[in-house]
Amino acid sequence: MRILVVEDEPVLALRLQQTLEAAGFAVDVAYDGEEGWFLGDTETYDAAVLDLGLPKIDGVTVLRRWREAGRTLPVLILTARSRWTEKMAGFQAGADDYLTKPFEMDEVVYRLRALIRRAAGHAQPELVCGPLRLDTLAGRVTQDGVPLKLTAQEFRILSYLMHHAGKVVSRTELLDHVYDRHFDSDSNVLEVLIGRIRRKISGNLIHTVRGQGYRLAEASGP
Ligand code: CA
Fold first, then answer.
1. Cα 52 to ligand 1 centre (Å)
2. Which of 121, 125, 146 is nearest to 136 (CA)?
3. What is the 151 CA–ligand 1 centroid distance (Å)?
4. Tens of pLDDT along 48-101?
5. 133 in the same domain as 91
6. 104 CA distance to ligand 1 middle (Å)
7. What is the CATH number of the domain that holds 188?
8. Rounded CA gap, 27 and 3, in Å?
9. Which of 119, 136, 160 is the last residue of a domain?
10. Distance of CA 58 from the midpoint of ligand 1 (Å)
């Protein structure tokens, strides 16, 4: 899962980036509204953290432009003050959730995981695909109750496939959602990572759909 952070305060931007990366997300950071708008408009993200008070273009305008252009990604806005009018303007522009500064870093992680899960159409915090269970809040995958030891990249891939179980996910889509924008997508690293995940989970759960991409076997049972 890949997150865009738009925040002009360098210290806070860095803390958000480090916290989200430690939580297993790929993260791009923009430090003003213009760069933030551009990245959100041209790159693929699972969610955005958007400060409202930004240089060049303010956060509400950035969000309104994304929505007018049909960008549906979940957006968590950050407001410096607890003023209701500011939050309301954010919601009217298309925000999904907000946090008032200062906030706990862990709360950003939990809110983003819930927003991403909801956006993929899942109400329950636990996603089940056969023997695999993804605790979306804790960011953990177990197989038959045993925690899987996954690298951050492997976790992002498996988590994305589990959010979209039963659907064919193309290589491009997977690469777009699991790497930041500095990644060289010509590399065959995706096949290598898929191979590693397959060796870590028993059973043939990740299917290669020739010429199309990958599909994780859909949830079975009740
Ligand atoms: Ca700001």
1. 6
2. 125
3. 33
4. 999 999 999 999 999 999 999 999 999 999 987 777 888 899 999 999 999 999
5. no
6. 17
7. 1.10.10.10
8. 5
9. 119
10. 9
